[in-house]
Structure formats: C-alpha cells, structure tokens
Design goal:
The structure is a homotetramer of 203-residue chains. Chain A is mainly alpha-helical and 203 residues long. Helix content of chain A is 76%, strand content 0%. Chain A binds a DNA duplex (21 and 21 nucleotides) through helix 1 and helix 3.
Amino acid sequence: MAASAASLKEKYQRILDAAVEVIAENGYFNSPVSAIAARAGVADGTIYLYFKSKDDVLRTAIDASFNRFHQQVLEQFETITDPREQLLYIAQVHLDTSTADRNMAILMQTEVRQSARFIAEFSHHHLVKYIQLVREVIRRGQSQGIFRKDVSDGIVAHCMFGAIDELLSSAVFTGRIYDAKTTAAQVLNVLLNGITSGREHAS
Amino acid sequence: MAASAASLKEKYQRILDAAVEVIAENGYFNSPVSAIAARAGVADGTIYLYFKSKDDVLRTAIDASFNRFHQQVLEQFETITDPREQLLYIAQVHLDTSTADRNMAILMQTEVRQSARFIAEFSHHHLVKYIQLVREVIRRGQSQGIFRKDVSDGIVAHCMFGAIDELLSSAVFTGRIYDAKTTAAQVLNVLLNGITSGREHAS
Amino acid sequence: MAASAASLKEKYQRILDAAVEVIAENGYFNSPVSAIAARAGVADGTIYLYFKSKDDVLRTAIDASFNRFHQQVLEQFETITDPREQLLYIAQVHLDTSTADRNMAILMQTEVRQSARFIAEFSHHHLVKYIQLVREVIRRGQSQGIFRKDVSDGIVAHCMFGAIDELLSSAVFTGRIYDAKTTAAQVLNVLLNGITSGREHAS
Amino acid sequence: MAASAASLKEKYQRILDAAVEVIAENGYFNSPVSAIAARAGVADGTIYLYFKSKDDVLRTAIDASFNRFHQQVLEQFETITDPREQLLYIAQVHLDTSTADRNMAILMQTEVRQSARFIAEFSHHHLVKYIQLVREVIRRGQSQGIFRKDVSDGIVAHCMFGAIDELLSSAVFTGRIYDAKTTAAQVLNVLLNGITSGREHAS
DNA sequence: AATGAATGAGTGTTCATTCAT
DNA sequence: AATGAATGAACACTCATTCAT
C-alpha cells in the first residue's frame, strides 16, 4: 500500500518531469502529448488521469517551480533583513534555481514568454509577484535612506529581473556555465552602486 | 512593367506586414498561413512564391526589423562619440523602435523566445550582435577611464539589454504606454551611476 | 449469505437501471461505461463482472423490458378473448408500460432504432414477436367474421404498432403527457372502424 | 470551366452520397469521417472544404431529402384537391421516395431517431412539418363533411405517419420489396374507412 | 505570376476493457 | 467479489504545402 501510494505520487511527478524535459527540448507546440507520455513511460491516456489537459501539465509544472522559488525567498527573509542583502539573495536564488533545474529554466525562457496566451497570461502573475517582492525591498531601502529616492522602484525592479533573466537566457542558449553566487554579486554590484544613496548621477 | 515590379515589391512587403500583424495577435502556432494570406490580400499559394515556408516569412520579418535597428545605431555613432551618450542612444532607439512598431515588439517578446528552435536560435544571432555593440561601447568607456574597469563588459551589456527588454515586455503585456526618452534616461541613470568610475561599491 | 446473494441480485439490477437512466439521458454513444458505473454506485470494472460488454447491458435491459410486456399481454389473454378487446388491451399496455418507465420508452424510441446494428437487429426480434401477436388476433377476428377479410393482417398489424409507436415517440420528444387509456381508445376507434366487417371502403 | 464547376458540384454531391451510404451501413457513430471520405474518393480534409463538420454533412443530406419530399407534395396539391386523394398521394410519395433512395430511408429509420440529440431535434422539425401537412388535409376533410369530426386530426395524422413509417422500417430491416402504390392503397383503405363520416364506431 | 482546391499527416482527447491488488 | 488505475486504439478536425489551371 505504501508502494502503491508512492507509485501514484511517482507517476504524477514523472509526467511533470517528462513534460518539462520534452517541452524544454522541442517547445510546447512541438511536443505531442504522446511524446511526453513516452518519456514518462506511461500510456497517452494516463496523462489525463493526472491532468485535465496538456496545458494543465505545463501550468502545474511552472506553478510548482515558481512557488518553490517564492517560498524559499520568503523563508530566508526572516533572517536576512538588510535590503541590499535581500536583493542579493533574490538574485542568487533566481540564478541557483535555474542552474539546478536547467530544463525548467529553458522552459521559462521560452514557453513562458510565448504567445500561447493561456501560458503567457498565467505566468505573468508569477512575474508580477516577483516584481512586487523586489519593489517592496527597494521601497524599504529608500525609506531607510539606503537607496536613492529619485529612482522609480518599479523601474529598478524590472531592471533587476530583466538583467538576471537575460543573463540566464544567454547562458541557457549558449550552454555556458556560470557561478550563481559570483554572477549575482556582479549584477548587484552594478545595480546597488547605481541606486545607493549619496551617489546621484549629475546628468 | 514598372507597375508590375512595384506590385511585386508591394506584395512581398504586404505579406511580411500581414505576418507580423497576425502573429502578434495570435502567436505563431495559432496563425495559419491562410490567415496571413487573407490579411495580405493574396491567395494562400502566393505566399510560397515569395517565401520558402511559413518559418521563412517570420525569419525575414525579424531580420529586417533588427537590421533597421542596427543600421540606425551605426549611422548615429558617427556623430555621437561619448560612450555614455552612445549607450543612451541605443536604449532610446531600442525603446523607440518598439513603440513605433508595436506588433513587431510583441512578436519579439513572444515568438522570438519560443522554443520553436528554428526561430530562437536564429534570432539569437541578432541578440549577439546587439550585445557586442554594447560591449564595445563599454570597453571604449573603460579604456577612456569613464567606466569602472572592475566590472565585466559582458555582464553589463546583458544587464542593459535585459533591463530594457524587460521593461518593454512588461509594457507589452500590460498594454502600458511609456515615453521612450524618459524611460531610457531612467534606466541609464541607474546603470551609468553603477558603472561610472570613481564610485566603486565597497562590498 | 442471503444478504450476499441479495446484494448480488441488487447490484445486477442497479446496473441495468443505471444504464437505462443514463442512456435515456445522453444516448448510447454519449454514455461512457464509467457514467453508468457511477450512477449505479459501483466501480467501472464491476460492470464486467455482470455483463460481457457495454452492449450486453443495453441488450439485457431491452430484453427484460420487452419480456415483461409480452408476459403481461399473454397472461391477460386468458381472460380477454374478444379480438377487438385484445387489440385494445395491447395498445393500452404498450402505452402504459412506456408511461410507467419513461426512460425505457425514450431509450426504445432512440437507441433501439439506431444503426448500431447489434442493437437494431437484435431488437427487431422483439418487434417481430409483437407484430405476430397482433396478426394472430386479427386473423382470429377475421375468421370469426368480426374483421374484414380483404385487408392484410400483416399490414394492419404494422399500422397498429406504427401508429402507437409514433404517438409515443411524439410524446417522448415533445415531453407531452398523455392518458394511456384515452389515447389507446382513440387509435383503436379509428383502426377498428377501418377494419370492422361490413364497412368496406368502396374505393 | 464548365468542367470545373461541374466537378465542384460533383464533389459536394459525392460526399453527401457517400455519407448517406456509409452511415446507412454502419450508423453515424460507427462511420469515421475517413470512411466517408474514402467512399467519396476524396481526402479526409476535403470534406471540411464543403461542410462545417461531420454533423453538417448528415444534416444537409437529411434536409435535402425531406425538402424534395415536401416540395413534391406541395406541387401536386395544386392539381389534387380531394382530401382523400391528397392523403393517398402523401403516402405514395412517402413510400416512393424511400424506395428510390433506399440508403436515405435506412438512415431516416435509424439515425434520425437516434439520441444524437443534435440530429434528433433537428429532424424533429421535418416530422412536425409532415404532421402539419396531414392535419390540414384532415381538417379540410372534416369541414367538408367527408371525415368524421369526432376524431382528433393530430392523432390521425400521427397514426398515418406512424403506420407508413413502420411499414417502411419493417421493409428496410427485412429487405422486403414492396409496391409503393399498392401498399399506400392498403393503408389508406383502412385509415379512410376508419375516419370516413357516417361510420362512427359505437364503442 | 497568381490562384485556391486538394491533400494527408499530425494531434489532443475519450473511453471500452483489462488486470493487479 | 470488487476495485479503479492503466491502457492504447480510435477519431474529428487543422493546416502547411503542392500543383493544375
């Protein structure tokens, strides 16, 4: 019975993993359900015992991935309180997570943006949450006098996400390996330097 | 005869424009060739007189768009020589172009990232050229003593592209209107502040 | 043990009833076995312990229903002997049965006619028995001098069945409620009038 | 060009004919679109150039068939005015049409009643028109004093349709050949005898 | 050059039936 | 006896591409 329960769980997860793998390789529209099923080692129909539709599989995988990220950040925020360190931590986890699950990173870099609207709109929610997280940190830093007050928290947040996302994307496409900690440090070095109070640009 | 040649040119361009429009609206995989043909006011088969395949249409459209961007930047670099102003100019044109051709911007934000490998890999070339352009500017600034030398030109270049691209992406998804000049100024304000010499972060 | 046997019987019948219900609602081809199982409160697989196939369930249900009808008529024929009254009785039971088990009536009016040959051909047997029953009554009436001898017993039998069946069908489709006794009387009024001896039509 | 137009018309009709044939043989739900296409000698996809859906093919075929019937009756009613002869004519055309297009007759006897609700409900409209046609004739006969006034025109109409329909059905299933004129005469003989004025049944 | 009818391979999803538990 | 997870064949419909006109 324990075996049965385990096997149930296992199959659900196997389908999710297979989907991420196959879709990362070929793209959502070029990944027939039958290919996902084959990779997972189940029959085509079995997918529909665990998921409502092909879309549902992808949605679930993305959801889970983002939630893990979000969860991890929130937990650590209880011990890390300095806004600069918080931003650094977000960048690190962002890059780390993607290193750990390369397929999911590819998938996020490709499908998530793509015009399969159902996914794009849905995954936009996650992005919004990410951006909000960063904006709050920045506003806190501004009110503490750490960050310049003459830059928009929204713009900075988008810049930070965009910069890291682009580095990831580039690494994904070129297959380059990077060190999450070092890379995060470099990006934040520039960014923090740019927004730290008392160094306003005279343009 | 002149009319015939003109009409040829015209039809070729009409198909490209129609493709960008339709694909921006519905996504590549949800845009039948027949829909593109209808929008262009030609028969389905006619598309294949001008292009090898559906892919080829999209590829050509993206090529043309990027080349226009690249051309414009290179031309202006003959009169703008200060590295800081050059970066600002790139950012402005990047945002401007996307404002001017909203459909192409949508398409770039969605399809281009998509794992339809043929496009993703292909459009990566354009990105590489963009990044190289920026890196050269940064290295020039570093050798002139304007920019800090302790940051990687590659990372900064990716950050700059990523930041702008993400702002665009966000604007595209939310339908928000932005002012290209102001937005470019804000991003560059942070970035230049972050990499300007003599302000090294003490982390 | 008695309980077990009862439960066996019970489950068998529950499946039959559920099948008639579900199929009457959605049609044979739109009624998954799983829906029948759910309605019967058993597992999908259980159905195959009692029946050979989905077809078999429907066949059995129709068989039972017709046999009840046939049985009832034969029993009553021991006390009703006048051919005219016998025909009236058949018509009444035909309509009555369908009123009492509306779902079965719907099912007979729809699935039974359907070209799912296995059913159509099979249920044709029942119709043949019905027609023969009526023909015998008519021939008896003819030999007793009650009915005209210049009309084919076969044709009259088909007419009678067809007339009643069509009234039923119409009632089923429109959802109209009818009074079995009155309706039977009206049909037989016309029919008996038409075949009663001494009133030959002069056409 | 004439050939092209003819071929167009031809293909449309070939698909309709093939559909009626195949569906008459196997039933709607057991007739894959591919089988219809094969019978018509076209590719599967071609069906969808001429019809919106599989349903649409069947609907169109039934529509055309009934409309031919209805048309023929209405035309002849301009020269036949006696209610008795009108009823006889309807019966004859009903049986004739079905003899001429045996497949359509089978199809009407099977699919049309079937719980594929989309068809059942749709074809019900045709039946209603048929019944109304007959009812009007009967009411005219009643007001002219030819037919008894103590029987419901609706019930008689349903009886007439049901009787003929059942004879047809029986012939279809058994493969029996019948003579439309003779059969119609026999049914009407009974029916007219039953409803002719001055012969009220004394029940 | 231009057309658009025709093709047929390809895909998401359903469901009757089986079988290990 | 009973379950229900698993199977995989089947099917309606779409669409990129071709080619006769």
